[in-house]
């Protein structure tokens, strides 16, 4: 709460009250952090009023809050319901209708993973929000043609994401295409029922499409022929389209609007097809050809020079790339900002050197699993790419502290570095600590890292958001204390298998108020006391993994149910909890949607039955032991299914790992 | 004359029967007016409210001349028989054939006579409709229609029917149905000559462009069936027992039961088609529904090619769609074959548009949706609404085509038993049921030329109605 513009004394509050509402709103517009905004609201009613009047977006976490949110923020334009627990047709319709007789100005709605919402809810939403422009329905696996028909009533719709709406067929797509002719951006990724016929109609009915994602569809070149008629097409993603080949890419050659193409995992696309596309589409900025081209051919490399000026992103993951290829790429594409060479065999220090020597603007370099790279590569990257922000060096075993020293000294803008499975030590962390902009640090499987290294990190990387310490088994409570002390912004923390950590370490972590994701698998020493301190301190916690924390008992669950009201995803498999604790947990946590509870050997069948009944309407995903399937009452399972909950039954033996 | 000779030598009895059966010119009246001939011609005056029924003396004269010619022809044939019979007694087969030819010719004469008097039809109502026929006619029947072995048959049928159909109301009703039908059908009682004349005069369809072909109006013989004939379930009737058949082949099989003479290979053989094809005028058909493009009165008249075309066209366009698909319960058809074709393809996957149009294939639906603004594929649950729309639309579309079809059909033909009844009524109406029932049987045979190969069949019977010179001139014209 040390942000500027934050009133701290009573006198200042009086002054704030005197200011006009739009001035306050203007001042608030400069405050981006939601927590800071909350402080402002709490400090002064005037700020609260100004904020309420000017607030544009909201992300309610419980459906009970939705009507209040809609009433309180009249100028809301963006509504994110993806985390809204318990949302169903009735509550959505009721909330939208209770917002008063006035029409809602909401333009963007995200309903991602809102599996409880069906066509009735969507119909109500479309009716209540006449200015609707963007809807995200991704991962609503139950959504089908009827839902699309309801959405199609929103004639002004410009953006629609329906990834993994498994029930949508050509008919649903046709409904949307006919109903929303102004569609600008559409993603039908994973909608496996959609075929060429639907895409053809889409291209005919929505001529303004700029961005289309047809990844993983069973469509053929015919779809590309239809899409090639779109004059404004800028972005197209064809990930994993098995029936598309070079012929299809040639059809896309017409026009010159295309800016981004993703043909990764298209096994029938070769260098020649891509070369012919590049030859005619001269303004391409992004190419993702990962896992598709069988080999990089010279025809493709020579054509790259035609788009050398515009190309900024090139991903060639999983291909065999030699130094000469990389040199050709470097020669042609001077403006590259991102290069992806993940899992590319044949990438050597020389190759990297010949690439980066021309590409001074590189910001993201992904050399995951390029086993041959050594410190020399890091040295040449550090020398040439001063702007680099993201380095992915996972599984580069020859990299050590010397290389990282060069990087740390030259690349002060580094924000993300992935050193998973690299043999680095505390000294390397000492160098990296000088990168004060660091936000993401992944140190998984670096077993030689100790508390000392973490102390370095904690001392300088205040902006750290994500820290991965998976299987860094030398880490103890002191290390956590240092990190918790220095990196207050940490949101994601992975401590799996750092088995030396005890409740004391968790006590330190409880000062991380912004922590949302915490993974603590197999921390056998932590107990309910540690969980309690986490629950009380980390109020933002959304995801918690306690699998195989054998010592965690009901006390931990009591604390979670009492304090972690935002908890959405929880894994308590193998924990020593009883039916009573589980019941209380499921009965109290109103945001909980995803629960994994395998091998809870202390919980009786009645315990499962009762607790599941308590949480029935809210759960979306459930992982249970297969044996329970026949024991739990069929009505319960039916109710779960009816509420949009998917149960994953697992059958594995109970094995205790230390 | 020479044509008669051809018949005698070239064709079997069945064939001849068939030929007469396909005697289209007779269709127009042969079926409808069989009960007329023995009523008073003056009765016609009572039916002047029907415009087409006017008694045309010129036509009548033509017809009578023709009948006269025909009688002379038959006499010639019999004379040859007598002569030949003396010389070659061994050729028994030929003799029977000739006998049958003569029989057929005589039947034709009777029918012609009946049809000539057909214009007097409406007077029937006022005439002795229910009067009992004189018994003496029985002999004539035997002599004319069939061999003596069938007499009991005929009599029993008529006896039965007399009993069945004695209620005056029934007759009244049936008659009404019949006349109504005639009214609706545009009352095509005028005989073939008139039709031919019409075509020649170019009164109508002067510049009709036919489907695919472009026959000038006069170059074909234009025929028009009545709707009752079109809708008749059977087109071939046994001249002995009156049983109806859809196919000529089935009739031939049936005939075997009536005696050994029908079992000969010649009698069972399929009648050859090419006998006199080259001399024939092309036949085209007109739909009896006035206002239809297939009706000869239409400005852009397009004739129908075959009887089958006529039947299907009439049922599809002017009849109620009484066959409902048992799977979707939505689609209706008036032609059974259409229903069967549909049922083959009618499955769960019915691709329906929001406008109510349905498609068997998804790509067809999507092409339709792409073509029309605002149309979308319908979801399964939308179906009931749309289908009801569709039904109502279809219903309204079909409205004008409604008519007492069941009535008229039962009157005219019915099926099996009711069939006979219908026939008998006519017989009763005509005061001489016996002659007429036989005549009717004969005429049934003729009238509904088999659906199969009706067109291809060179119907020598044209001669039986058309005067030779008339035919020749028409043919000449066609050549030109």
Automatic annotation (TrEMBL), chain A:
One of its GO terms (biological process) is SCF-dependent proteasomal ubiquitin-dependent protein catabolic process. Residues 411-586 form the F-box/LRR-repeat protein 15-like leucin rich repeat domain. GO terms for cellular component: SCF ubiquitin ligase complex. This is F-box/LRR-repeat protein 15-like leucin rich repeat domain-containing protein. It comes from the Eukaryota. PANTHER family: F-BOX FAMILY PROTEIN, PARTNER OF PAIRED, ISOFORM B-RELATED.
From TrEMBL, chain B:
It comes from the Eukaryota. Residues 378-409, 457-480 are annotated as: Disordered. Pfam families: zf-C2H2_STOP2_3rd, zf-C2H2_STOP2_C. InterPro entries: STOP1/2, zf-C2H2_STOP1/2_C, Znf-C2H2_STOP1/2_3rd, Znf_C2H2_sf, Znf_C2H2_type. GO terms for molecular function: zinc ion binding. One of its GO terms (biological process) is response to aluminum ion. This is C2H2-type domain-containing protein. The lineage of its organism: Eukaryota, Viridiplantae, Streptophyta, Embryophyta, Tracheophyta.
């Amino acid at each position: 709460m040390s942000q500027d513009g934050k009133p701290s004394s009573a006198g200042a509050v009086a002054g704030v009250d005197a200011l006009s509402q739009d001035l306050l709103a203007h001042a608030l517009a400069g405050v981006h952090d939601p927590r800071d905004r909350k402080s402002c609201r709490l400090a002064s009613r005037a700020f609260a009023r100004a904020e309420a009047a000017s607030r544009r977006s909201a992300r309610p976490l419980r459906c009970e809050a939705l009507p209040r949110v809609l009433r309180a923020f009249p100028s809301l334009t963006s509504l994110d319901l993806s985390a809204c627990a318990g949302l169903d047709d009735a509550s959505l319709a009721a909330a939208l209708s209770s917002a008063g007789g006035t029409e809602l100005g909401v333009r963007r709605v995200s309903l991602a993973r809102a599996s409880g919402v069906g066509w009735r809810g969507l119909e109500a939403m479309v009716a209540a929000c006449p200015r609707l422009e963007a809807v995200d329905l991704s991962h609503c696996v139950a959504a089908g043609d009827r839902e699309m028909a309801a959405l199609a009533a929103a004639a002004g719709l410009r953006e629609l994401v329906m990834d993994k709406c498994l029930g949508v067929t050509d008919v649903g797509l046709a409904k949307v295409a006919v109903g929303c002719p102004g569609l600008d951006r559409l993603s039908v990724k994973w909608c496996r029922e959609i075929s060429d016929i639907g895409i053809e109609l889409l291209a005919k009915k929505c001529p303004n499409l700029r961005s289309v994602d047809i990844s993983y569809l069973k469509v053929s070149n015919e779809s590309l022929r239809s899409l090639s008629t779109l004059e404004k097409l800028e972005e197209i993603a064809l990930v994993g389209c098995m029936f598309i080949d070079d012929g299809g890419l040639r059809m896309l050659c017409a026009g010159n609007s295309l800016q981004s193409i993703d043909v990764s995992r298209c096994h029938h696309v070769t260098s020649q097809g891509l070369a012919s596309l590049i030859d005619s589409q001269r303004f391409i900025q992004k190419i993702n050809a990962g896992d598709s081209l069988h080999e990089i051919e010279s025809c493709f490399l020579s054509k790259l020079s035609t788009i050398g000026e515009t190309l900024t992103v090139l991903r060639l993951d999983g291909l065999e790339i030699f130094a000469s290829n990389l040199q050709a790429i470097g020669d042609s594409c001077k403006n590259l900002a991102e290069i992806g060479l993940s899992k590319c065999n044949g990438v050597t220090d020389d190759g990297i050197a010949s690439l980066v020597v021309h590409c001074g603007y590189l910001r993201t370099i992904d050399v995951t699993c390029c086993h041959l790279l050594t410190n020399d590569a890091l040295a040449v990257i550090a020398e040439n790419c001063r702007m680099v922000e993201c380095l992915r060096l996972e599984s580069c075993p020859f990299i050590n502290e010397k290389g990282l020293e060069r990087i740390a000294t030259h690349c002060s803008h580094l924000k993300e570095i992935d050193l998973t499975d690299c043999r680095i030590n505390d000294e390397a962390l000492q160098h990296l600590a000088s990168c004060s902009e660091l936000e993401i640090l992944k140190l998984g499987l670096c077993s030689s890292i100790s508390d000392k290294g973490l102390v370095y990190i904690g001392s300088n990387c205040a902006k750290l958001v994500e820290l991965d310490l998976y299987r860094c088994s030398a880490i103890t409570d002191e290390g956590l204390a240092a990190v918790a002390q220095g990196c207050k912004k940490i949101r994601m923390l992975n401590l799996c298998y750092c088995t030396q950590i005890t409740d004391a370490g968790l006590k330190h972590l409880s000062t991380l108020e912004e922590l949302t994701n915490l993974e603590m698998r197999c921390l056998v020493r932590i107990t309910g006391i540690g969980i309690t301190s986490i629950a009380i301190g980390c109020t933002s916690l959304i995801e918690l993994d306690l699998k195989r924390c054998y010592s965690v008992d009901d006390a931990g669950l009591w604390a979670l149910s009492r304090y972690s009201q935002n908890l959405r995803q929880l894994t308590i498999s193998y924990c020593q909890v009883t039916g009573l604790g589980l019941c209380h947990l499921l009965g109290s946590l109103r945001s909980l949607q995803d629960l994994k509870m395998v091998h809870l050997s202390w919980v009786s069948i009645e315990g499962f039955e009762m607790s599941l009944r308590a949480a029935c309407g809210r759960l979306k995903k459930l992982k249970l032991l297969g044996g329970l399937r026949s024991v739990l009452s069929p009505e319960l399972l039916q109710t779960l299914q009816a509420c949009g909950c998917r149960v994953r039954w697992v059958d594995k033996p109970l094995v205790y790992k230390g | 004359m020479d044509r008669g000779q051809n018949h005698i030598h070239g064709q079997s009895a069945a064939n001849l029967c068939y030929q007469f059966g396909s005697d289209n010119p007779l269709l127009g009246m042969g079926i409808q007016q069989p009960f007329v001939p023995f009523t008073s011609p003056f009765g016609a005056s009572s039916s002047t409210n029907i415009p087409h029924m006017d008694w045309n003396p010129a036509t009548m004269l033509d017809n009578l001349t023709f009948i006269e010619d025909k009688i002379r022809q038959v006499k010639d044939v019999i004379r040859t028989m007598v002569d030949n019979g003396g010389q070659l007694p061994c050729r028994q087969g030929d003799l029977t054939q000739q006998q049958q030819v003569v029989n057929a010719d005589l039947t034709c004469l009777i029918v012609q006579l009946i049809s000539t008097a057909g214009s007097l039809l409406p007077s029937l109502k006022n005439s002795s409709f229910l009067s009992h026929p004189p018994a003496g006619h029985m002999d004539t029947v035997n002599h004319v229609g069939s061999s003596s072995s069938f007499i009991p048959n005929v009599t029993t049928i008529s006896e039965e029917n007399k009993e069945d159909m004695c209620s005056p109301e029934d007759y009244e009703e049936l008659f009404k149905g019949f006349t109504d039908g005639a009214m609706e059908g545009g009352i095509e009682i005028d005989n073939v000559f008139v039709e031919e004349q019409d075509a020649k005069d170019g009164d109508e369809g002067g510049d009709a462009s036919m489907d695919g072909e472009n026959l000038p109006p006069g170059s074909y013989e234009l025929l028009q069936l009545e709707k009752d004939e079109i809708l008749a379930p059977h087109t071939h009737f046994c001249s002995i027992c009156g049983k109806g058949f859809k196919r000529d082949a089935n009739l031939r099989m049936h005939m075997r039961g009536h005696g050994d003479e029908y079992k000969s290979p010649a009698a069972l053989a399929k009648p050859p088609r090419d006998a006199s094809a080259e001399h024939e005028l092309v036949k085209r058909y007109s739909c009896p529904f006035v206002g239809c493009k297939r009706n000869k009165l239409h400005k852009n008249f397009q004739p129908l090619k075959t009887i089958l075309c006529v039947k299907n066209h009439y049922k599809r366009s002017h009849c109620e769609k009484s066959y409902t698909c048992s799977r979707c319960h939505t689609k209706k058809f008036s032609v059974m074959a259409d229903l069967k074709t549909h049922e083959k393809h009618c499955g769960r996957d019915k691709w329906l548009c929001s406008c109510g149009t349905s498609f068997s294939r998804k790509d067809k639906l999507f092409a339709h949706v792409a073509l029309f603004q605002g149309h979308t594929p319908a979801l399964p649950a939308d179906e009931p609404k749309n289908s009801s729309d569709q039904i109502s639309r279809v219903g309204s579309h079909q409205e004008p085509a409604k008519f007492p079809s069941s009535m008229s059909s039962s009157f005219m033909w019915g099926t099996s038993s009711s069939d006979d009844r219908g026939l008998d009524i006519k017989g009763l109406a005509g005061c001489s049921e016996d002659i007429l029932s036989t005549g009717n049987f004969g005429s049934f045979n003729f009238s509904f030329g088999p659906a199969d190969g009706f067109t291809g069949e060179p119907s020598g019977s044209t001669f039986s109605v058309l005067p030779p010179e008339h035919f020749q001139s028409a043919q000449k014209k066609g050549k030109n």
